[in-house]
Amino acid sequence: MATEANTSAPAEPPQAPAPQNTQNEAQPKDQKSKGEQPAKGGEAAGEKKLSGAELKKKAKEEKAARRAQAKAAQTSQGQPSGGQEGAGDGGKGGKGKPKQDGQGGGQHKGHHAKPVAAPVVPKEVKPAVPECFGHLSMARRINITQADKDVDPAVLVLGQHMSTFALSDSITRLEATLYAFKKVIDSYTTPIGTTFSRHFTSHVLNPQIDYLTACRPMCFSMGNAIRWLKLQISKIDIDLPDLEAKKLLCESIDNFIHERVTLADFVIASTAADLIEDDQVVLTYAHHHLVQRALLQAQEQGKQFSVVLIDDAFERVGVEHSKALAAAGIPVTYVSDLGALRSNLRDVSVVLVAAEAMFSNGAMYARSGTCDIAMAAKDLGIQVVALCETINFTERVSIDSLTYNEIDPERLSDVGFRLLFDTTRDRYISTIITELGNASPTAVPAILRKLEEL
Amino acid sequence: MPSAVAGYAPNLDKYLKSLKGQPLDLSIENLVSLLKRRQIKGAEPCAVATAHIILQVVARSKWQNVDSLLDNVSRVGRKLASAAPTELVIGNIVRRVLGLIRDEAAEDRNEPQSEDPSDGHATPPDAVPNSTVAKQDSAGDYLNNSPGPQSRPGLFVSQSAVNIPKSLFHLLSASPPADPDHVPGSPFAGSGTSTPQHHKNSSSQVHALRSEVIDGIEEIKDEISQVDDQIAALADVQIHSGDYLLVHRPSPTVERFILRAALKRKFTVLIVTEPPRKHLAEVQHASFRKKLAAAKITVVNILNGGLMAYMARVDKVILGAAAIVANGGVISDAGAAAIARAAKESGNAVIVLGGIYKLSPETPFGEDEVIEWADPSSYVDFADGQLVGSIDVRTAATEMVPADLIDTYVTNLGTHTRDHLSTLIADHYKPEDIDFHLWDDARR
Question: Is-contact B275 B379, C-beta < 8 A?
Fold first, then answer.
């Protein structure tokens, strides 16, 4: 313990002096602590004598500088000149299935892309995920230059947004992903000797998906959409010219977004708004655009109701939400955390929450803390209404919150740990509002079947 | 409230130091204002402060017999309890002392004291005991027969000073307190005409009682200081190797408990921390973490408000109690109820730690009576006009964990179930003292 505490401090400034490179691979940590001691005579302190760890670090620092420039250039350009397109040929092809949320996969350690922590912290001292949560996945910041060369610039930027949680909820991520893929399709030309439907998925699409997954584990809606997209690609007639195939695909992506996202959100928000009656007290948790939309819509309809907003104490996204509601004229009570939940629930008539995903056993995957509220509400006989687009429905089954979950990378440190989601079992949920109508949570498998038919 | 402003802010230690040099009344008033300002807060400091001041009351206030002593103690106790109504331990300590006085007095009575003519000898012998006991014992009577002579404010003071009607001897040879008819009869004996020899006798008795009671209060103080150790001694039974323990903002009691178990067992501790806000250390419970790390225990600070996500992994939830109410509900830091509920729903054990002095014979009518609301400005910015202007901001500091969510209570006396709590209450408090804090209100 003591040695570890020592290492992090002296290792912070990048050190050039020569440590003993005899033991460099074996004990990089020890070495760092010794690094500050005067080097023993024998070695001529040349570049080559640096320990592996330090070499790596140095290389990364250099890279970081280059990257910063590259990043600036890329973001300003948006669409850089080709160059990367032909590269698809040399790509390493379909690399197996993309990893999805908590698929049980490891931590992608030793993957080509290394996590880049805050600049002060040496990279090797990545805060360890507690062993008991080691099976869960986590978003990681990947430098653009470290990404696979096949990754499209639009996807690169998207990956950055996802890993920094600039795009965080499932529907926004889904939409952005599909738009980015449209650009990928746009800029693709089928190499001679192959056909679109055979070449595109494995050589162009999969690297994009891999990169996005590495940035942040895919959410269920993305998985669903990508499966759909691949199906559409495989359906394309091999004889169809590139241009038309691309046009066809882009159109169907647009339609997909329109149907499954835009219209779905509209229907759900208005259904939820209709549910709210005069003089009710609606309780909601943190922030979700669907809930906000529903509440604002109900207010526009002239309903007199008030809102109790319980915020996530460790991620205060509810502050802005409550301000937006108050600005629209809704009386809002802002509760800073889950404390005194029973007192806060006492006058509440309905709990309105939005789901990140729905499992086929009727369990709801949503922001961590949702389950606690749903349980308390259920205990007091208050109905819990979940809002969820059907694109978020998944075949998987989850009976506890640790089967599928995600670790919050922003708050993962040597001392802190945070899970982003939890799973609310079907018994705590009264109704799910989807664009296909209201359903009980046990009807999720039926909805999934119906979706297959559509 | 950020009480950490070092230097001038008075605290428990400073207050205890000041006790000796000050007149009693001033000390009492000081403590009342310290409690009101929450400069002494939390169960243990409140209990310690109460025990100290009650000790002073017993030692320094004027009293000539058991009655006036009981009066003095409960009067001060009421003041303190109403200064910090959410700190139930204050009432508990006062009740303990009241019960102690009654016990000591009863012992004195049982000792064969041949010649003990009392001050109140002039009064009819049967009336004296009845009235005294009824007055002290049946608090409910004050509520029912409020127009009695006692309901005049200020009377207690004068009684303690002037009326010296009853002796120890008579006091407890009394008939049971169920007899409210005699209540209004108290000012009867006010003669105060005690002969010198009586005085002598009673004063020696008073002296004996005083030292007995003071010893008893010292014992209570010792008990409070040893509670953590005694509870920790039970840790081995509750915590097993390989356990995943979830603790919510560990109090010193909980920390001691876990550290003791860490001597023998290897387990994992998940600490639920306070949400980030101003004036809060970067890493919470750092010293606790350090000690656990020294014992090679894995520690994780959980930065989630809702703990359902972790319950699949957790084996036991350990909560520290600020108070345990008679029905088994536990007052603890805000967020504890959500954790206990999550644990209950996932079938995990919820263990509550708290000294027996935190066990209160009261059962609050609703949660709102006993929970405390915190300063919202530590969570939302007061400069944020939109928030301040149009939004009602609520932050709970403490909350009540419903009894049905708790599996086990560990006190310094052992491990108990909810059903057993009533026995413990009966062991520690006299039924006649349970509502002592209401008397004052009733007389107003």
Answer: yes
| 8 Å CB contact between A269 and A292 | no
pLDDT in tens, A171-188: 999 999 999 999 999 999
Rounded Cα distance between A356 and A170, Å, is 6
Tell me the C-alpha distance between A299 and A280, whole Å: 12
Residue B129 has pLDDT above 80, yes or no: no
Range A269-453: architecture per CATH: 3-Layer(aba) Sandwich (3.40)
Sheet holding A364-367, edge to edge: A357-358, A364-367, A421-424
Averaged pLDDT of chain B = 79
Q: What is the dihedral of CA A252, A257, A263, A264, to 10 degrees?
A: 120
- Cα B19 to Cα A448, B23, B422: the distances in Å are 73, 8, 35
List of E strands, A67-185: 137-138
- Which chain A residues touch B338 with a CB distance below 8 Å? 338-339, 341, 372, 376
Looking at the predicted complex, does its ipTM rise above 0.95? no
Measured from the Cβ of residue B135, the count of other Cβ atoms closer than 10 Å reads 24
**The pLDDT of residue B138:** 39
Interface test with B, best of A3, A132, A321, A337 (most B CBs within 10 A): A337
Would you list the DSSP string of A134-154?
TTSEE-----GGGS-TTS-HH
| CATH architecture assigned to B233-412 | 3-Layer(aba) Sandwich (3.40)
Nearest CA-CA distance, residue A111 and chain B, Å: 27
User: What residue segments make up the domains of chain B, in order of their start?
Assistant: 12-226+432-443, 233-412
- CA distance linking residue A172 with residue A174, whole number of Å: 5
